[in-house]
Specification:
single chain, alpha/beta, Aspartate Aminotransferase, domain 2, Aspartate Aminotransferase, domain 1, 2 domains, seven-stranded mixed beta sheet, four-stranded antiparallel beta sheet, 16 helices, 45% helix, one-carbon metabolism, pyridoxal phosphate, cytoplasm, Ser_HO-MeTrfase, PyrdxlP-dep_Trfase_small
């Protein structure tokens, strides 16, 4: 960031401006491997910072509680139509502020406090809002969890079916935050049908892959699709709920007035732009490149002696179990950060360590693919990870500094979309 590009911010609040400038440099110079992060385009950034910020718009297009909504209605309607077209759904609501509120709206639409709900256990790769105990969804509802097999790291759909038929949950969530394998939506749909449950696909991580045809779509199998709009979709930090027409009224009522007031119109505009970009042929290439890079990186890590949960990946995400390396995930993640490689420490299935000091790290390929890195670069990335983990075990800060210099050099050759740095 420079004063010439953002003169008002620098003039008004130079301290805050300096923090933003530092973050721009950090994002430009580091190899970002957190699978829930990405780079948005300059167009999405611009749309997210427009005068739409000035509007308050409780209600829905044509049914607002405020006047002066003529343009806002068109912006939201455009985003809704683009979401419906891209994901092949009957109805879309683009107002949820983020993924967790979107999921909470699903509970409000279909369940009562105390009802049984079912989702993947958080330590197995699920999400807090799928009925996990420390979440409001686990406090207000009775959460039961399924997991993965200890021998394969894969979902056991027979076990999921047995649990669903025994518990008869009101809601079943499929999807999560650390699932490296393809979700069988058709299998979940059959289970939900037998159990008499509403089926919700939380595709926050893989929405961009679905839009680009690199992961099967849940649209024909589930009652509701919940997703964030960033991550692989490369939009602003918002969310969407999509559903069959029969559930449209319940979903809309749950979002507003059930949980929220006025939508963030500037975010809605950014979502509309991102959905337009995701409908282009170039995005199809991007989505498949994300998966190709992840598979190539997983293969390179396996060759270097890393233990990967489920043995690899089908999507954008890789979960590394560092138990065999004798380096805890938190120590490895912090060492990788000093090497200019940004990951997050993460529990692995059946992890004997605590969540704040787990055995694994979670990595993904959306951001590096957005910068233009390809499968030919993945062995180098795997080498950097291997060298960094080895340096962490030895406490070798010089090795980490050397890797960071190499990372910085490569990142300079692949500028990040949307960043104002050359």
């Amino acid at each position: 960031m420079s004063a010439s590009r953002h003169p008002a911010l620098f003039a008004t609040d130079p301290e805050l401006a300096s923090f933003v400038a530092a973050e721009e440099v950090l994002q430009a110079q580091t190899l970002r491997l957190i699978p829930s992060e990405n780079y948005v385009s300059a167009a999405v950034l611009e749309a997210s910072g427009t005068v739409l910020q000035n509007k308050y718009s409780e209600g829905y297009p044509g049914r607002r509680y405020y006047e002066g909504q003529q343009n806002i209605d068109r912006v939201e309607a455009l985003a809704v139509e683009r979401a419906k077209g891209l994901f092949g759904v009957d109805h879309a609501n683009v107002q949820p502020y983020s993924g967790s509120p979107a999921n909470l709206a699903v509970y409000l639409a279909f369940a009562k406090p105390g009802d049984t709900v079912m989702g993947m256990a958080l330590p197995m790769g699920g999400h807090l809002t799928h009925g996990w105990g420390v979440s409001a969804t686990g406090s207000w509802f009775r959460g039961v969890q399924y997991g993965v097999r200890a021998d394969t790291g894969l979902i056991d759909y027979d076990a999921v079916r047995d649990l669903a038929l025994a518990e008869r949950p009101k809601l079943i969530f499929c999807g999560g935050t650390a699932l490296p394998r393809t979700i069988d939506f058709a299998a979940f749909a059959e289970i939900a049908r037998e159990a008499g449950s509403i089926l919700v696909a939380d595709v926050a991580h893989i929405a961009g892959l679905i839009a680009g045809g690199a992961h099967p779509s849940p649209a024909d199998h589930v009652d509701v699709v919940s997703t964030t709009t960033h991550k692989t979709l490369r939009g602003p930090r918002g969310a969407m709920l999509m559903c069959r027409e029969e559930h449209a009224k319940a979903i809309d009522k749950a979002v507003f007035p059930g949980l929220q007031g006025g939508p963030h119109n500037q975010t809605t505009a950014g979502i509309a732009v991102a959905l337009h970009e995701a409908a282009q042929p170039s995005f199809v290439s991007y989505a498949h490149a994300v998966v190709a890079n992840a598979r190539a990186l997983a293969a390179a890590l396996l060759q270097r002696g890393f233990d990967l949960v489920s043995g690899g990946t089908d999507n954008h995400l890789i979960l590394i179990d560092l138990t065999g390396k004798d380096v805890p995930g938190k120590i490895a993640a912090k060492a990788l950060d000093r090497a200019g490689i940004v990951v997050n420490y993460n529990t692995v299935p059946f992890d004997p360590r605590k969540p704040f000091d787990p055995s694994g790290v979670r990595i993904g390929t959306p951001s590096l693919t957005s910068r233009g890195l390809s499968t030919e670069h993945m062995p180098l990335v795997a080498d950097w990870i291997a060298r960094s983990v080895d340096a962490a075990a030895k406490g070798d800060e010089q090795a980490l500094a050397a890797i960071r210099a190499e990372v910085t050099d490569l990142m300079a050759a692949f500028p990040a979309p949307g960043l104002p740095l050359s």
